[in-house]
Amino acid sequence: MRRIIIRRLLQIIPLILGVIVLNFMLIHLAPGSLFDVMTSEQQVTDPAMLDQLRHTYGVDQPTSVQLAKYIWSVMRLDLGFSYRQNAPVLDVILEQLPSTVILMLSATGIALLVGITAGVLASVKVNTIWDNLISLGAVFFFAAPSFWLGIMMTVLFAVKLGWFPVGGMRTIGSDQGTFGDALDVMHHLVLPATALGLFYAATYARVMRASMLEVFRLDFVRTARAKGLSRSRVVISHVMRNALLPIVTLLGLQLGTILGGSVVIEAVFSWPGIGSLLFDSVMSRNFPMVLGVLVLGSLLVAVSNAAVDLIYLRLDPRIRAR
Amino acid sequence: MLSLTIDFARRFARNRAALVGFALVILVIGVALAAPWLFPRNPLRIVGKPEIWPFVSSRYPLGTDSLGRDIAAMIAYGARTTLLIGVCASLTATIIGISVGATAAYFGGWVDELLMRFTELFQTIPNLIFVLTIVAILGQKIEYVTIAVGIVTWTPIARLTRAEFMSLRDREFVQACRAMGMGNLRIMFGEILPNALPPVIVLSSLVIAGAVLFESAVSFLGLGDPNVSSWGRLIGDGRTLIRSSWYICAVPGLAIMLTVLALNLVGDGLNDALNPKLRDR
Amino acid sequence: MAAIALAPSAPLLEIDKLEVSLFTRRGVLPAIDGLSLTVSAGETLAIVGESGCGKSLAALSVMRLLPEPPAKIVGGAIRFMGRDLAGLSDREMQRVRGKDISMIFQDPMTSLNPVITIGDQLIEAIRCHADVSRKEASNRAVEMLRRVRIPDAERRLNDYPHQMSGGMSQRVMIAMAIACGPKLLIADEPTTALDVTIQAQILDLMKDVQTDTGMGLIIITHDLGVVAETADRVVVMYAGRKVEEAPVEGLFERPLHRYTRGLLGATPSAQRQGDRLVEITGSVPALENLPTGCAFQNRCPDAFDRCRAERPVLKPLLPHRTAACFAAEEELSRDVAAIGS
């Protein structure tokens, strides 16, 4: 088991290497010299500093050496320096990371809770009005852009009804201790997390429904009924256990999309995370920051993917045997 | 072949949701094509009082935005942008996906291994972040947005093509072609691909829906082409006015949702019609 | 055992004119038509027939586990120890399943949940009907595994189904089925999916358990070897109907219905062990277009006009035996005439 875990974690390395190489290629594909753009955008004029930067990015050396240098510096977690924030790129990103992770986790949590509940309900009441309503809802939320849902929810629940704040992560100037602060963040979190999560909830509902119906037809469900288990017990401990496996796979595949989605949602709700940072950096053409977010975001997805795979291993003993 | 097509069409037509989707897609295409005829003047032109609500003025059925531009005209022209980018991005994704998937499956071995790792790489990179990075570096042009969206959406197509190719690769007709001394490329694209294509096309139609959503997010963030009218951008422009005139956001959002919904329904319908056995479940 | 006092003749299970229909797009099809049978405590009844004859549906009807839709009980009664099972609420029926009547299925490899350990599945079955702690249930699970002769029972509790062979899985299924001491065990093709060498072991095991507990046993099979080895009495089904019923020796000695004869390979005195079904020419008529008259007429070597015009009903033709066959009736009356003259 430990060997499997280590092997899975080792698989992350070539992926990240690939991302770094891709990054490097992007820099070189850019029209004109990206270096010039970077320095002029960031208003670096001091010749000494220009020289230092030129050296950091190795502009004065052949491409292969540049690539090796770039890989080496990223490996040492040196993602460059951001003059806008006047701090190393890594530090800025790590500072913003927790709020994005909170948003992603909450959105995923909502998606799983709503999606699985709806999917199970639809499968248990298959071909009834419940099933139809859930399927209809899933079709709609599967098609609605999350940022638009966010805005519409803001209009209704924040502007008209005043139940939730319009944006931000904390009420400015409030000091209510740790617990009060956590509540305050949660209050701010409801709308963005729901807006981001509903699309995935729709996906999970559809997949869960299909997967439940598939499992219902399997022999062991009949065995469980024959033992004398109640219908709900059979659904929960036998059908759902098996039907959840595709959801776990899907979760792993969609992590990157959820991180991407949080970029837009953060922009809608002025949520101070990686997304807002990326948006600002793209707007101000702060490329070291943009590329840094791309590398770290990929790393985050790769690691979470490995974690999801290991969870899958835990859930499905048949895979473990292989 | 003809009877097969008719059979396919009949199965598709039996699916009521797919028909509704099909009708909606036709409607959107119709509006996009008719836009210059319906609204002959530049849609970004100011035509009247700002912030007229929908269904109030008969001249501006969907109202006007904060500057006094006709929302209906912008929606109609936006349909052109949205569909164009959606279809072209999906085409890009399909070309990349088929090339990668077909090569991986046909040659197998280390080629397959390498290309699948490559595919995995693109699945790992957070897709919207990648799109924004590309657009930020290359510039805010409609071509770049299209290519960027294509680059982040090809992976499922590659996987499906690979699976289809795998199942066809060792069939007798392929071996016959090999025995006849046909070249690899000719076997791959002339013989195997036509057989593998139907499910891939269905997936491509679903990718259009995804591409429309991506494009809308990019232009919502203000990173789309500033010279064209697009639904995402309309929402982005209207955002500041949600307290007074939230309809400016609501209308284009509904347009996006209905278009994506319609494309999904058509895709699902095509899928069901391709796999009639699955439908009875 | 807190057994309810039964009159010696009162059967454990009595199926009375059971009718099950399949509600399909092609219409309502009679999958089981007027099936009656009884099983007593300690007795083994075999239900024999080709696939699609309704034997499995009959078993599932007793458990009230018919796949609904399309199948549904539309008539008749199923009495277990005098109680009509069809009239029970879902909750009451849950208390019957696994506790009073248990069932094991054809394919043991797919009948166990792949993501739950053997131990947990056994414990679940035990705690479902007995108010015991997990520890006690676990002990009882080990005891049950030993009883079905699974070596190294404690360790096996933590195994997953894919780690076991087909034979072992079927033993686990049996252990699970008898864990709560049922009075009736229904085994639906219990050995079909297993290797020949394992088949005999599983049958022996079931007979042993029956001897220990005195439970009634219904074995559903198309394998006449299984019938010869285990059954006391045999019910032969064809196209949803019972066509013959007989004690096992009598059946092998002199099958009456022409279908039974076909099953036995047309050799009336075949009592060789391990006799398999010999292909009968022709095919079972589809339920949606059963012919008037006998359903077997198109495949019957002895069919005559009456068989095509009139449906034969079950008649007691010999002591303890019934059959629904005009050809058999004719034959027997000729025999009687021959003796009389």
From TrEMBL, chain A:
Under the heading Gene3D superfamilies, the entry gives: MetI-like
Q: Which CDD domains match?
A: TM_PBP2
Residues forming the ABC transmembrane type-1 domain are 97-312
Assigned keywords, A-Z? Cell membrane, Membrane, Transmembrane, Transmembrane helix, Transport
Cellular component aspect of the GO annotation: plasma membrane
Q: How does it sit in the membrane?
A: Multi-pass membrane protein
The answer on whether this UniProt entry bears the keyword Cell membrane reads yes
Q: Which residues cross the membrane?
A: 12-30, 101-121, 133-159, 189-207, 243-269, 289-313
**Could you name the domain of life of the organism this protein comes from?**
Bacteria
InterPro entries found in the cross-reference section: BPD_transp_1_N, MetI-like, MetI-like_sf
Query: Where is this protein chiefly located?
Result: membrane
Q: Its Gene Ontology biological processes? A: transmembrane transport
Keyword Transferase among record annotations: no
* Compartments, as annotated in UniProt: Cell membrane
Q: Which Pfam families match?
A: BPD_transp_1, BPD_transp_1_N
Report the family membership: Belongs to the binding-protein-dependent transport system permease family.
Protein name per the record: Peptide/nickel transport system permease protein
Task: Give the species.
Answer: Rhodopseudomonas rhenobacensis
UniProtKB/TrEMBL annotation, chain B:
SUPFAM superfamilies in alphabetical order: MetI-like
A Pfam family cross-referenced in the UniProt record is BPD_transp_1
What Gene3D superfamilies does the record tag this protein with?
Answer: MetI-like
Q: What is its main location?
A: membrane
This entry carries the following GO cellular component terms, namely: plasma membrane
Give the subcellular location: Cell membrane
Keyword Membrane on entry? yes
Q: Please give the coiled-coil regions recorded for this protein.
A: none
Q: Which UniProt keywords apply?
A: Cell membrane, Membrane, Peptide transport, Protein transport, Transmembrane, Transmembrane helix, Transport
Give the bilayer topology: Multi-pass membrane protein
Q: Which positions, given as ranges, span the membrane?
A: 83-109, 121-138, 201-224, 245-266
Domain of life where this protein originates:
Bacteria
Which example biological process does GO assign this protein?
peptide transport
- Where the record annotates domain ABC transmembrane type-1, the positions are 79-267
The answer on whether this UniProt entry bears the keyword Cell membrane reads yes
Q: Which family does it belong to?
A: Belongs to the binding-protein-dependent transport system permease family.
Record protein name field: Peptide/nickel transport system permease protein
> Which source organism?
Rhodopseudomonas rhenobacensis
Q: What is the lineage of its organism?
A: Bacteria, Pseudomonadati, Pseudomonadota, Alphaproteobacteria, Hyphomicrobiales
From TrEMBL, chain C:
Q: Cite the GO molecular-function annotations of the record.
A: ATP binding; ATP hydrolysis activity
The entry's cellular-component GO terms read: plasma membrane
Q: Does the keyword DNA damage apply?
A: no
Subcellular location, principal = membrane
Its GO biological process terms? peptide transport; transmembrane transport
Q: Which UniProt keywords apply?
A: ATP-binding, Cell membrane, Membrane, Nucleotide-binding, Transport
* Subcellular location as annotated: Cell inner membrane
Does Magnesium show up as a keyword for this record?
no
What PROSITE patterns does the entry give? Answer: ABC_TRANSPORTER_1, ABC_TRANSPORTER_2
Into which family does the record put it?
Belongs to the ABC transporter superfamily.
Spell out the PANTHER family in the cross-references. DIPEPTIDE TRANSPORT ATP-BINDING PROTEIN DPPD, OLIGOPEPTIDE TRANSPORT ATP-BINDING PROTEIN APPD
Question: Could you tell me what this protein is called?
Answer: Oligopeptide/dipeptide ABC transporter ATP-binding protein
Q: What is the lineage of its organism?
A: Bacteria, Pseudomonadati, Pseudomonadota, Alphaproteobacteria, Hyphomicrobiales
